[in-house]
Amino acid sequence: MAKSPVTVIGLGPMGATMASTFLGNGHPTTVWNRTAAKAEPLVAKGATLAATPADALAASELIVISQTDYTAMHDSLDDAAHALKGRVVVNLSSGSPDELRRAGEWASRHGADLLTGGVMAPPQGIGKPGAYVFYSGQEATLDRHRETLGELGEATFVGPDLGLSMLYYQAQLYLFWSTLTAYMQSVALLGAAGVSAEQFRPFAAVTVRDLASDGPMGFLKILTETIDAGVHPGDDHTLRMQAVGADHVVEAVREAGIDTAGPLALRDLFWRAVDAGHGSDGLSSVIEVIRRP
Q1: Which of 62, 158, 206, 244 has its CA at a distance of 20 to 30 angstroms from the CA of residue 234?
Q2: How many of the other CB atoms lie within 10 Å of CB of 27?
Q3: Is-contact 149 142, C-beta < 8 A?
Q4: pTM, rounded to two decimals
Q5: Which secondary-structure segment (H or E) carries 50?
């Protein structure tokens, strides 16, 4: 059965890989990029280079955008907005949640349906096992193109609010970056005493594994349950005790002569929660000052 045509706008590392994936799966693929030369490798594989953004929009019902941000989409398509009517625009670029919501209004004014997405894979992971994409918008619109979009990664619908896909994406990025940055801080702390990163890595791996487990050290599950319940039992390991421990981490970092910004921010967050009346509660009570600073 013939595959449906797809247009890809934006041919940076992500967009070029998406276009290549569609081509490899048999979709007639039209591409457009502000720097046309970036399309040459894809044209050599069988893609069609559109001469203008309007031509790119006219070529397919399904338009996949992968650009730097939503400003780039408007810079590229505002003058061609007359060609948006009847199109499904899937924007996988980064932006703020409100920016995505405004883009939905813009698309609707021009007769198009917008799906927003956050791609949870690096360019080399597109179309590979483990890749997935958060989508928000109209689920029926996603369902019509789920098979095609699923070629990029599992299509994970998170709700009709167009900003929600980006909130999920940014929440995941923050978790990813902060976890790896905490690892680098720990490596630097031990490195000041001559310990290599490889010597520490097995212990860090156990901690990360256990945090996500369902066992007694599965604090991700434990915190999830207490946060959703709105109850933060301190038992025999109160937040005040952990804030004092955070003081000691800051002292150790200072003695090591390495950057203190991350540990200080964590220590101060703990003590703000204690000062807000959560000293006898558990660690999950910190979310109360995060929610209401």
Answers
A1: 206
A2: 22
A3: yes
A4: 0.93
A5: none
Phi-psi region of 28 (alpha: psi -120 to 50; beta: other; left: phi over 0): beta
**How many Å apart are CA 276 and CA 293, to the nearest integer?**
10
* pLDDT one-digit tens code per residue, 100-132: 999 999 999 999 999 999 999 999 999 999 999
From CA 184, how far away is CA 9, in angstroms rounded? 36
The CA–CA distances, whole Å, from 197 to 211, 220, 244, 263 equal 20, 25, 27, 19
Q: What architecture is domain 168-291?
A: Orthogonal Bundle (1.10)
C-alpha to C-alpha distance for 119 and 155, rounded to whole angstroms: 10
Longest dimension (CA), the chain: 68
The dotted CATH code for 6-160 is: 3.40.50.720
Give the residue among 60, 70, 28 at the shortest CA–CA distance from 165: 70
| Cβ pair 11, 64 in contact under 8 A | no
- Domain residue limits, the chain: 6-160, 168-291
Question: What are 27's two structure tokens?
Answer: 């979709």
Using CA atoms, how far residue 15 sits from 74, 122, 217, 259, in Å, is: 17, 11, 40, 37
Give the Cα separation of 65 and 77 in Å (integer). Answer: 11
User: What is the DSSP-derived secondary structure letter of residue 276?
Assistant: I
- By three-state DSSP, how is residue 88 classified? strand
3-class SS shares of the chain: helix, strand, coil, % to 5: 55, 15, 30
270 beta partners: none
